[in-house]
Fold each of these.
Amino acid sequence: QVQLQQSGPGLVRPSQTLSLTCAISGDSVSSNSAAWNWIRQSPSRGLEWLGRTYYRSEWHDDYAASVRSRIIINADSSKNQFSLHLSSVISDDTAVYYCAAGWSFEIWGQGTPVTVSS
Amino acid sequence: DIVMTQSPDSLAVSLGERATINCKSSQNVLFSVNNKNSLGWYQLKPGQPPKLLIYGASTRVSGVPDRFGGSGSGTDFTLTISSLQAEDVAVYYCQQYLAVPITFGQGTRLEIK
């Protein structure tokens, strides 16, 4: 059974980079059938998909237009995990951030509340 | 982008009664390769991650009570809870996963009348 465990800080200063990691158990980040996503949830935005990475002989990634200039999602096969890096954060990036597995999101991490504040 | 629009925004239903939530996509979300609609329904409760209830528009995830049902095809979809239970109070979201960016509806808040 696939499980996802998130880690990372809950407070980020404005203009800094938000970095979160999602550790995978029960599957491989390099699986040729899987996809690994980041989503955020806030009262103002509801659920917002941020992007994903997946491996099909080489790594691919897709990003939401709203964050494309600021986001990187990458995978670490040696640690079997994937990470979110969102740069130049502002208060509007305050949200609960989730990692999720699949094309429809069958498995979710526990969520990380992130506040952007000085 | 495929825009997902849910109705109503909020809904109050008596215990044991039927709850119906609608979702309309701005484009057809039928995946031609497998002839399945790329449409999911999620339940979101405070302090918990979203829970996938339905995928492929009508396939219930293992372990989800059979009072939850999904229907529809193309651009119009429905989530039905046949007999509302107290634990069903939540916000429900539809989602299309046919095309990037993956998009969600705005959510429907379901309460007990």
Amino acid sequence: DQQVKQNSPSLSVQEGRISILNCDYTNSMFDYFLWYKKYPAEGPTFLISISSIKDKNEDGRFTVFLNKSAKHLSLHIVPSQPGDSAVYFCAAPRRWGGADGLTFGKGTHLIIQP
Amino acid sequence: DAGVIQSPRHEVTEMGQEVTLRCKPISGHNSLFWYRQTMMRGLELLIYFNNNVPIDDSGMPEDRFSAKMPNASFSTLKIQPSEPRDSAVYFCASSLAGRGRVETQYFGPGTRLLVL
């Protein structure tokens, strides 16, 4: 049973506009969330994370928002650039600390249109 | 830093054959993870090791799958015998696990397995 869900398999956004990728989770015990980015023929790479004690974390063009009451988080990319075209995975540690692996959503394929 | 190294990058085999996937984690990392990516199930954790000891293999789909970590710099994932439904991309990841923090996992490039 998927505890982390990304309901949009793909998203197309024009270059320069904002990309918003969404993620929902069912396990209220999750206290940390991560976003990974994956290009074809490469492994996922860490992008940004957020602790449940925060509701926002920003790193350059990337901002993650967490709404604990709704069990929802989102990744905002502003402005979107062609190099942002990739598959984005939302993930959470299976248990506190993360030492025993991550549970992932199925990913959203972001396509930035020129 | 060379990152996580996986071999082979691609493997095509026939049903019933034994397949061995290899992984070299980042030097100094003490946790190693094997994940599998399929269209149907996305990225799922198969097994993980901490300090070379298997901790949780509940994600291993069947007894046909086995994994070992004989030392801190090498791990294998073996499928014997292989079946067409094992076709997927297999990722190895490593991290430096520590008490009280979530450490980023670093992924290898993956092995794309096709079982005919």
Amino acid sequence: GAGVSQSPSNKVTEKGKDVELRCDPISGHTALYWYRQRLGQGLEFLIYFQGNSAPDKSGLPSDRFSAERTGESVSTLTIQRTQQEDSAVYLCASSWDFSSYNEQFFGPGTRLTVL
Amino acid sequence: DAKTTQPNSMESNEEEPVHLPCNHSTISGTDYIHWYRQLPSQGPEYVIHGLTSNVNNRMASLAIAEDRKSSTLILHRATLRDAAVYYCILRRTYSGNTGKLIFGQGTTLQVKP
């Protein structure tokens, strides 16, 4: 079956530009997560959606970062006025729900490079 | 969330068993022990999880100490494809839980032919 997909796979942008990253979760998964992985580092949690609501945005690093989810499906992570420190791989994951015994399925990630 | 401690790196020979340890001395009774791995240039993938009893699946086995303060991920016959970073993660069940994964640095497993 189809897994989690993300687009684009690579994005190169200039400092100061806005970017949108897309995540298509597995159909029927109500929980959706965004993580960030800087080069050589571990994954950092950014935001969690349950349905279309985001009860946990605690990992968003600044107000330049925002995300939305529609139709309990697709999610978009938007970074405004990108900075060089935003360069990272952005990973999306989905799960049946937030229960601690359910596995999360990860997409392949979007590699963002800010010049 | 409770913290886990893993060795930074381990080496194994192909087709030999690998035992990846994880210490979690502050684990609580409602914490599930999850293992994920991340192959080079890929997103993490789920390996296995357990609560109290040892668990087996097609990928690996999870041995959990009786006091639950440590666990071991067992790959029965390592292949070159098993070379990855392995993350041991505790996930707690509680009201208001969001299920987010808190990743540490993990153990980088090298598999030699």
